[in-house]
Design brief:
CATH architecture of the largest domain: Roll
Strand order of the largest sheet: 1-2-3
CATH superfamily of the largest domain: SH3 Domains
Order of helices and strands: EEEHEEEEEEEEEE
CATH class of the largest domain: Mainly Beta
Distance between the termini: 49 Å
Helix content: under 10%
CATH topology of the largest domain: SH3 type barrels
Number of helices: 1
Largest sheet: 3 strands, antiparallel
Length: about 110
């Protein structure tokens, strides 16, 4: 007997299979079979050009950025090596010019 997965949103066990989708009658969430079989919830972050970033990539700033709370400016073209992707508003955790900072992906491009 095939096991129908619980709803990933509300964890309801009353889900059913309809064609190519799984449907939850309690929260009305619909998802496909591939999403149900993938157990890993991957974080996908894209740079300003639409390239997919991964942990350990090198990036380059595409514009000057003023650091909040200080008079320091990080110049366009500054490079960060070995980035780390994190959840939240600022998706990239890295070191630029010896300072540990968090950046939004829209201000960088993949090196």
């Amino acid at each position: 007997m095939n096991s129908i997965p619980n709803c990933p949103i509300c964890q309801s066990e009353h889900t059913y299979h309809d064609g190519t989708l799984y449907i939850c009658p309690e929260c009305a969430h619909e998802w496909d079979e591939q999403a149900a079989t993938s157990t890993e919830d991957e974080l996908q972050v894209k740079d300003s050009n639409g390239n997919l970033l991964a942990d350990g990539d090198d990036i380059i700033l595409i514009k000057d950025l003023k650091l909040k709370g200080s008079s320091t400016v990080i110049k366009k073209g500054a490079k960060a090596k070995g980035i780390r992707l994190v959840e939240g508003d600022h998706e990239i955790d890295c070191k630029v010019d010896g300072m540990k900072i968090m950046l939004k992906a829209c201000f960088v491009k993949k090196a």
